[in-house]
């Protein structure tokens, strides 16, 4: 796991995401998912760019099936953008860095 990106579980999702002080980007992923591996370095770069302004977390859907089910994640990668315990945006699939930056900009 990259520095600055927290690996979360079903048990820690509520505390780390919905009760977080900062806006949160949740990356639902799996190790076997090619697009997930492709977007990973972009997420890592953005976590450095927005360090202290946005919290970045990753949730492995294979190891943690409850959280993706609860938030209706139907495909991966899916990114949830959460602010104040509310999901404010969702992006599914491989996405350009510029689109991610635009969405994060609305979050902060």
Can you walk me through this structure?
This protein has helices at 13-18, 34-49, 66-70, 97-107, and strands spanning 5-8, 24-29, 55-60, 78-83, 86-92. It is an alpha/beta fold. It has one domain (5-101): Glutaredoxin (3-Layer(aba) Sandwich), CATH 3.40.30.10. Strands 1-3-2-4-5 form a five-stranded mixed sheet. Strand 4 and strand 5 (86-92) form a beta hairpin. The mean pLDDT is 95.
Question: What topology emerges from the helices and strands here?
Answer:
Layout: E1 5-8, H1 13-18, E2 24-29, H2 34-49, E3 55-60, H3 66-70, E4 78-83, E5 86-92, H4 97-107
Parallel strand pairs: 1-3, 2-3
Antiparallel strand pairs: 2-4, 4-5
Key features?
five-stranded mixed sheet; 108 residues
Radius of gyration, in Å, reads 12 Å
Strand content: 25-35%
Mean pLDDT across residues: 95
Level-1 CATH class name: Alpha Beta
Total number of distinct structural domains = 1
Major β-sheet, in short?
Answer: 5 strands, mixed
Helix tally?
Answer: 4
**Helix/strand/pairing category:** alpha/beta
In short:
With 108 residues, the protein is α/β, with parallel strands linked by helices.
